[in-house]
Amino acid sequence: MKKIQISPSILSADFSQLGNEIKRLEEGGADMIHVDVMDGHFVPNLTIGPPVIKSLKKHTKLPFDVHLMIDPVHKYIKDYSDAGADIITFHPEATENISETINLIKSLNKKVGVSLNPDTEIAAAEKYLDKIELILIMSVYPGFGGQKFISDVIQKIKDLDKIRKERKLNFKIEIDGGINFETSKIAINAGVDILVSGTTIFKENNGDLKKNIKTLKQI
After folding, report:
1. Which of 21, 87, 175, 184 has the smallest count of CB within 10 Å of its CB?
2. Rounded to whole angstroms, what are the CA distances from 153 to 122, 191, 192?
């Protein structure tokens, strides 16, 4: 049985206690920390920048899984790398040259992720799948937490898993948006390796992070 990883989204954490929240996530069994970066332009919301990420790194040994929802993304890659991002994920629509952005992230010794919105086809990333470590499938339209899961993306996950097996590639499939105890099972069965979840991890079972993370990992 493959190991399912959990990348809790701190978008749902208590922002006045972010350092402590990240410590709690590590103690609760999280595999990495998912950081949603929004610019109010590419998506209709504003979140955190490099200085906050840099200050949070000292609170955990877990890798930072940084999802950049900013446009243009290329000129900010180094700032987020320097701040402590371990995985840097970007959207194809947010760069003028996907290959150059991938190469820049790799030159900084970071793992590369490409994110596909619900209406973005696999074709936008398919020829780069042998050059990246992660493909992030958005199962909601990015911008705000707590949205309903878009089930149409399940076929996209199955198609990516098939491509991965046929071409013997090693990229991980991550999913973000509306992930709860039910949708997590659907996603895992379709081929997902990493679950991003915010509301479910922080709110269910009276905020019992350890219990919620463990439950999400179960098929």
Report:
1. 21
2. 11, 12, 11
pTM: 0.95
Question: Which of 2.30.260.10, 3.40.50.1820, 3.40.50.10770, 3.20.20.70 would CATH assign to domain 5-217?
Answer: 3.20.20.70
User: What amino acid positions are annotated as catalytic residues?
Assistant: 36, 176
How confident is the prediction along the chain (219 residues), in pLDDT tens digits per residue?
679 999 999 999 999 999 999 999 999 999 999 999 998 888 878 788 999 999 999 999 999 999 999 999 999 999 999 999 999 999 999 999 999 999 999 999 999 999 999 999 999 999 999 999 999 999 999 876 667 899 999 999 999 999 999 999 999 999 999 999 999 999 999 999 999 999 999 999 999 999 999 999 987
Residue at token pair 């992930």: 179
CB 7 within 8 Å of CB 195 = yes
Asked, as a colleague might, if the bond just before 92 is cis with ω within 30 of 0, I would say no
**125: which 2 tokens?**
């990333």
Identify which of 79, 78, 85 has the alpha carbon closest to the alpha carbon of residue 62.
85
